[in-house]
Design goal:
Blueprint (H helix, E strand, L loop, with lengths): L10 H18 L5 H15 L2 H13 L4 H6 L11 H14 L10 H10 L2 H23 L14
Amino acid sequence: MDARLNFFAGPTAGKAVKHMMSLGRTLKDSPLPAATQELVALRVSQINGCAVCIDMHTKEADAAGESSVRLSLVAAWREAMVFSEAERAALELAEEGTRVADAAGGVGDEVWANAAKHYDEDQLGALVILISMMNMANRLNVITRQPAGDYQPGQFH
C-alpha cells in the first residue's frame, strides 16, 4: 500500500510535521514517565485504528524494555492487573480524551480527578498534550493511509 501523501515532500506539511516532531521530543523530556507516555500513545492509536502509530509505539516501548505482556494488554487495560493505578488513570483519561464525540460531556470530572491524584500539574499538562497530539497524528496517518510495519525504534529522534 502506498501513502496518499508524503508529508515531508511539501513545504507546508513538511514544516508542520517537523514542529509536531519537536513537540514529541519536548514531551519525551517531560516529567511524565516514559512508560506511561508509550502506553497512552499506544492506547490512543488503538482506538483510532492508526497502524503506523501502533507499530511505532509498540516498538518504542519494547526497545525501552516494556514487557510484551503489558503491551498486549493495553487494549484491555481495565481487566488487566499489570498496570499501576497511575497508569490506569492515564489510560482512562486517554480514552475519554480520545472519544470526546462519544462521551456527551467530554472528559468527566471523576476521570480528571483520578488523574490529578497521580500526576502533578506539569505531568497532567504533558499528558493532555500527548493525548491531543496522538489524536492529531493518528488522523493525519489514517487520512493519508500511511503504511505500517517498517518503523525502526528511534527513527524520528
